[in-house]
Amino acid sequence: MRVWIRNGKVVDPVNNSVEEYDIIIEGERVSEIAPRGSFELNSEKIQIIEAGGKLILPGLIDMHTHLREPGYEYKETIASGSLAAAAGGFTSIACMPNTDPPNDCRAVTEFILEQAERANLVRVYPIAAISIGQMGERLTEFGDLKEAGAVGLSDDGRPVVNSELMRRAMEYARFHGLTVISHCEDLYLSEGGVMHEGEISTKIGLPGIPAASEEIMVYRDIALARLTRCPVHIAHVSTAESVDLIRRAKEAGLPVTAETAPHYFSLDHRALIGYNTNAKVNPPLRSETDVEAVKQGLKDGTIDAIATDHAPHSPLEKEVEFDKAAPGMIGLQTALSLAFNLVEEGILSLPEAIAKLSLNPSRILGVEGGRISKGQVADIVMVDHKSRYILGEKEIQSKSKNTPFLGKELLGRVEMTMVGGRIVWQRAG
Fold it and tell me: So where are the chain's domains?
C-alpha cells in the first residue's frame, strides 16, 4: 500500500529550506514529493497520514550511541536502545565498540547486526574497535570488520595513546574507506579527575580534568590527518580551544570533521553543584566560555554534527558517591529538543540544525539517509515542534533513566518515526 503524508512542513537540509510539501511513499522509498495540494489520489487505495502543519524531517542519524549489548544488557539492549532511538526521531544509530566483549572482531559485529535485525526497529551501524580489546596495542582486522558490516572505527572511551599506532590505523582506515572516530583524551592529564577543572571544582572540592586533556589529543590527531591525509572525525568536542583547533584545521584544508553532544551546548559545570551524578560525563561539562565556543562552532560550521553520546547506566552506577559514579547520560530522546533550543536562540536555522542531526552524519559515515527526496529511502520523522512538555520517567524508552533533563521542560515532541516506509514509533494519545 502507498502512503501519503500530507499537509506537513518538510525540512530540507540539502537546500536549507522549509516548505509545505506532500509526500508519497511506495514500499521503502519516497516515490513523489511536491507542493501541498499537488496530488489527487483515491483515499481508498492509499494510507493517509495527516501532518496538520507539523514538521516532517529526514530520519535523524546518531553517529555516537552506546547500546551496551553484548555484556551490559542490564543497562541497555540493542532492542531497548533502538526503541529509545525511534522515540527520539532517530532512524539510524551508530553504536560504539566498548561492549563486553568489545566489538573488535567479525563475530561481535555480526552479533550486533543480528540483534538489530531481530529488534526490527531502526538501522544500526556498528563502529568497530581500532585496537584489539581497545588496549591500544595491536590493530584489529579492518577489512574483515568492514566486510562484516562495520562503518567506522573507534576506541571510544579508551583513546589510542600510541601515536604510531594511530598513524597506522588512519592509513589502513583510509585504504578500507572506514571513518576514524577519535575520542580525544590524554589519560595521564585526566587521571583521577571527575569534572571540569575550574572554579566550580575548586568550590565543591572535586578533582578536576583540565581542558588541555582533550585539546592535546585533538591537536595530535589533526597533525596525523595532515601527515596521512586520512579523514579523522573528532568525537564529543567540549572545549573552546578544541573548537579553534578544528576551525584552523578546516581552514587549512585538512580532512577533519567534528561532533559535539547536546549536553555540551545546553549545560555547563555549574550543573555539578549539588553533586548530581546524572550530569557526570566524559569529557566533563565545561565552563560557560566553552559552551559559548561550542555554540559558535556549530553556527559557523566548524562542528559538523550533533551526536547524542547516549550512555545508559543503571542506578548501580549512578546512585553512589560522585567520585565513584560512572560518567555518561542518556540522550536519544532529548537531543532533538535541545537542538530546537539552538534554533530558538538564533544559533542555527531549523534546516541547519536538522543537517547536523541527519545529513552531515550520513555523509561522514557514508550511510544512506539525511534527506527527503524522490527515490530516497523513506526514513521520516513527524514532529510537533511547538509542543512543550515535562520529561518524565514513563516517557523514557531506554532501560536506564540517567539524564539531568528528567523533570525539565523540553521543546518539540516526536509524533511518528518511519523507517523504510514502515512506522516504528507513534506517540500514544
Answer: 2-56+375-392+408-426, 59-365
